[in-house]
């Protein structure tokens, strides 16, 4: 188990990616703190983890509220004595609208949850990690931090800022042996993977949407010692969407080309004597 005896806080763990990451972490041996604003979903995930024999507890948390996060951190330290991993996953898309029409209240809410909360959680948890001389912070961004999502200016701006925050935090926290990285998901299914296969799409090079467990696998990798020499990085888990040249340039994707015969003689390289 790659996270044995580790203590992890996962924000927004009551549903979606956060829930899947929390479940995968406990499978890898971690004790998990579910930081979730919605009490019902937080308790539901807690019950799921406990039925599986995991060590976990739930703290109702509005991650954009510094007092709430202070309680979350204090309660985690009180119970476990340390925090090894923080996953900043909580997010909100917000009201879609043209840039000229977005209200100040929508902007403030989306930025507070998607951007300011990452700062609050990382700073408060980072102080605990710094005292221990070790730690691992994983931020969940989005490929929309690099490619603007139309009619979602606040969301895109916040996700871009999270990637910048990742780099500056990695710089400042490295002396304390704290690594900071970002996962940028592409199109991910929110349906249970055991019910339906992922939707097929031409948007990604792999021809399909992703599944939550594929993001969770990346989170386990970054949280484990397997990534011990990686910090300040953004890992896009997007099926090749960001580098899909066919989609970017509107070029028709060719059918699979025929492979050369197994023993077909290759042409001589330039400058090679025959």
Describe this structure in words.
- Helix content is 39%, strand content 14%.
- The chain has a single domain, classed as NAD(P)-binding Rossmann-like Domain (Rossmann fold), CATH 3.40.50.720.
- It has 274 residues and is of the alpha/beta class.
- α1 packs across α6 (212-223), α3 packs parallel to α4 (104-132) and α4 packs parallel to α5.
- It is built from seven helices and seven strands.
- A seven-stranded parallel β-sheet has the order 3-2-1-4-5-6-7, with helices on both faces.
- The chain has helices spanning 16-27, 39-51, 66-80, 104-132, 153-173, 212-223, 245-249; strands at residues 7-11, 31-36, 56-60, 85-88, 135-140, 178-185, 234-237.
- Keywords: Oxidoreductase.
- This is Glucose 1-dehydrogenase.
- Belongs to the short-chain dehydrogenases/reductases (SDR) family.
- InterPro entries: NAD(P)-bd_dom_sf, Sc_DH/Rdtase_CS, SDR_fam.
- Its EC number is 1.1.1.47.
Q: What would CATH call the class?
A: Alpha Beta
Number of domains: 1
Structural class: alpha/beta
Radius of gyration: 21 Å
What is the number of strand segments?
7
Biggest β-sheet: strands ordered side by side in the sheet: 3-2-1-4-5-6-7
The termini sit apart by: 55 Å
Number of helices in the DSSP assignment: 7
EC number: 1.1.1.47
Enzyme class: oxidoreductase
Protein name: Glucose 1-dehydrogenase
Family: Belongs to the short-chain dehydrogenases/reductases (SDR) family.
Give a quick rundown of the structure:
This protein is an alpha/beta fold and 274 residues long. 39% of the residues lie in helices and 14% in strands. It has a single domain, classed as 3-Layer(aba) Sandwich (Rossmann fold).
């Amino acid at each position: 188990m790659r996270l044995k005896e580790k203590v992890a806080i996962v924000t927004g763990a009551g549903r979606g990616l956060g829930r899947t990451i929390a479940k995968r972490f406990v499978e890898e041996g971690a004790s998990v703190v579910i930081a979730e604003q919605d009490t019902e979903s937080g308790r539901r995930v807690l019950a799921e983890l406990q039925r599986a024999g995991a060590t976990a507890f739930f703290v109702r948390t509005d991650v954009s509220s510094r007092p709430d996060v202070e309680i979350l951190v204090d309660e985690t330290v009180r119970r476990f004595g340390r925090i090894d991993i923080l996953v900043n996953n909580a997010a909100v898309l917000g009201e879609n609208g043209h840039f000229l029409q977005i209200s100040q209240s929508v902007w403030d809410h989306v930025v507070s949850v998607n951007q300011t909360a990452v700062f609050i959680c990382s700073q408060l948890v980072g102080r605990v990690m710094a005292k221990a001389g070790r730690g691992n912070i994983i931020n969940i961004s989005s490929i929309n931090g690099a490619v603007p999502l139309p009619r979602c200016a606040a969301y895109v701006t916040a996700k871009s800022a999270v990637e910048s925050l990742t780099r500056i935090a990695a710089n400042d926290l490295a002396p304390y042996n704290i690594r900071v990285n970002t996962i940028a998901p592409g199109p991910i299914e929110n349906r249970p993977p055991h019910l339906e296969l992922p939707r097929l799409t031409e948007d990604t090079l792999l021809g399909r949407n992703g599944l939550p467990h594929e993001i969770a696998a990346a989170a386990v990798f970054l949280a484990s010692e397997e990534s011990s020499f990686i910090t300040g990085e953004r890992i896009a888990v997007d099926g090749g969407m960001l580098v899909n040249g066919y989609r970017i340039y509107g070029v028709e994707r060719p059918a699979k080309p025929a492979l050369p015969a197994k023993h077909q003689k290759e042409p001589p390289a330039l400058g090679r004597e025959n």
